[in-house]
Amino acid sequence: MTTPTTSDTGDGLERASVGSEVTDTPDDSAAVGVSDGTGSDEPAGGVIGAHTHKSRTRRVIGVALRIGISLAAMALAFFALSSIFSSLNWSQVLSTIRSLNDADRIALLIGAGLFIATQGLVTASTLPGLPVRRGVIAYLGPAAVSSVIPGPSDLPVRYRMYQSWGYTTSEAGLSISASGIFSIGAKLVAPALAGVVVLMTGISVTDGVDTTLVLAGVVLVALVAVSTVLLGSSRLTSWLAYWLQAPWNLIARLTSRQSGDLGPTLHRVRSSALELLAARWPIATWAQLLFMVSQIGLMVMALRFMGVPQTTIGITEVFIAFGVVSGLTVLPITAGNVGVSEAGWVGVLGALAGSQYINQVTAAVLVYRWLTWLIIIPLGGLTLAGWRIGERRSNRTASTMAST
Question: Within 13 A of 247's CA, how many CA atoms are on the CB side?
């Protein structure tokens, strides 16, 4: 499938969010002869083929490096936690996990199912007419990719899924951009609310937790300010485009892209975003809220089943830890936020619970991460395979009907 250019989509920013990774086939001009400046004509396919090979090699190296960074982050997180909590015993952690009975396992799997369902609702909430069942597919498949390969590696997959279901390039790009806005917004709102909870309840937290909450609050204010400027009025949008044009041109040169005039692009984004948000923000907001509740509820279940009592770690403490982890994972440094998420959860909950419960807390965090990250990889892989098989069948059926 060849992805249309920026001019085809009509929305430069949405197209940029998907990126050139979506395109998986070379341009048709590869078959055209071009002169290499030596007086002989050489098929462009050889030149472009060599360039494509180098590009794929760089991409593979980049992916391998990012996976290596993720594994190093996981090892560093476990080493740091072992150093901070001297009473942390990994054999006891594993023993605690193995002590789960069948009823506990079933309950946790149900909680994980609700987690996936609410994430599917979040995905479907920004694309009009998309059923929740397809929202689940559009979450699981791409999430399996981003759980292994760091960065926005899920966006091209989700983009192709939307197009295969009949949505236009503009609708797909705008939905992906809107999903990113709501996701980042929720991850910034959570630590800001957690900071309010800390102030109201007087719960004692470490300096690192305070810093994370404050920084998330500052970024949230900045994001709200930029959104207000962009969406507030056409005049403010033009002003923002004027000041962003120079850095936009610089980024375009560094990434070998055509920059163009940013003004018309931002105005198109503004009008499309207003049209989408006006109709979808209530359901998208409620979907994000349900998704947050499913995550907090799943962690509470894991803590209780691991033997951490309500009097030691309640919902309030779990929400504070959730806010800290949300702030730490706004930018996906590692695949599936591996290492960062574990360190955040155990660091906050372990400090609040005390050393006597550190093994139980760590066991609960590992179970939670298995259900919200590790299990997504095989489930998403199967979902992705099923979608590809269905897409190929649809293409064959369409080809057969066209030939007759």
Answer: 4
